[in-house]
Amino acid sequence: MRAGLVVLRRLGETLLTVFLMVTIVFFLLRVVGDPAELLVAPEATHADLDKLRAQLGLDRPLLEQYVDYMRSVVTFDFGRSLTQNRGAGELVGEAVRPTLELTGLALLIGVPVSIILGSIAALRRGGIVDTVTTAFATLGRAMPSFWLGLMLIITVAVGLRWLPASGYGTFQQLILPSVTLSMIVIADVTRLTRSSLLEAYGNDYVRTAYAKGAGPARVTWFHVFRNAMVPVITIIGLRTAVLISGSIVVESVFAVPGLGWLLIRAINRFDFPVVQATIILIGFLVIATSLLVDIAYVLIDPRSRSVRRA
């Protein structure tokens, strides 16, 4: 019952967050300047500028624009692209699949690798394996995604010719960008898995389990590992949100036609409806992922219910 109340409360907070997010997007895109002036050609006349403002609905009162904008958010109908003569929502909908595929494959690579590395480092604390693993995780955290992507293209795609350097459509074309993106997960989850396991080994229930005659394997997998995974699951969910938003850079490097690639192209072409739709969808995906993480955390760890009620 208490878990249900916490979940309902989090749902309400999420709806408020979504409302604030789409509202901020509306005003930010207008604070930076008149979108019509950014879109119109340099040689355009005032009549051309007024015509474009009317086409975009920018000649109406701000409150009326806001009401229409919120209606478009609910129906995901942001009008037509100014450069491709297609619906902005349709373009964004097509770009979601590559982004989700890229994020999903990055998680499939990053989560098992990071948990295995973190577990080995914790079990071999202070040894050479622990030192190398910790250094690898720290290095991965420090490397920018665009630099790692370029290095993989130069070595694996151009030098060794093992995989395609860019594009989308085959599984092979997703490997390099997914590996690049997975370093965000590997770097953080490896370190957290190691520290969580070491902290769990020092708890009283571990000593109690040993005192009752449980062997090292049983203590590790049924007591230590289970409790240590609660914060790890949380950070995995949070990093999933980072993957979705961070795919902007990786998709641009590898020319993957996902949300990030679409957003960069729309910004360069001043395609106002597509920019607006893409930013809102990316924000919604990040918020939805955060909500799922919070719900999972409440259901997995009962202690968090009392904390959230406080």
Describe the protein in words.
The chain is mostly helical. Helix content is 81%, strand content 0%. The protein is built from 13 helices and no strands. Helix 7 (145-159) packs across helix 8 (171-201). The radius of gyration is 24 Å and the shape is flat. The model is unreliable at 305-310 (pLDDT under 50).
The average pLDDT is 78
Please give the alpha-carbon distance between the first and last residues.
16 Å
- Shape field: flat
Percent helix: over 70%
Report the strand count.
0
Name the structural class: mainly alpha
What's the helix count?
13
Largest sheet properties: none
**What fraction strand?**
under 5%
Low-confidence stretches: 305-310
Give the topology string: H per helix, E per strand: HHHHHHHHHHHHH
Round the Cα radius of gyration to an integer and report it: 24 Å
What is the compact description of this entry?
Helices cover 81% and strands 0% of the residues. The chain has 310 residues and is mainly α.
Question: What's the helix and strand layout?
Answer:
Layout: H1 2-31, H2 35-39, H3 46-56, H4 62-75, H5 88-123, H6 128-142, H7 145-159, H8 171-201, H9 204-211, H10 216-254, H11 259-268, H12 272-300, H13 303-309
Helix pairs in contact: 1-12, 5-6, 5-8, 5-10, 5-11, 5-12, 6-8, 7-8, 7-10, 8-10, 9-10, 10-11, 10-12, 11-12
Write out key terms for the chains shown:
310 residues; mainly alpha; 13 helices; disordered C terminus
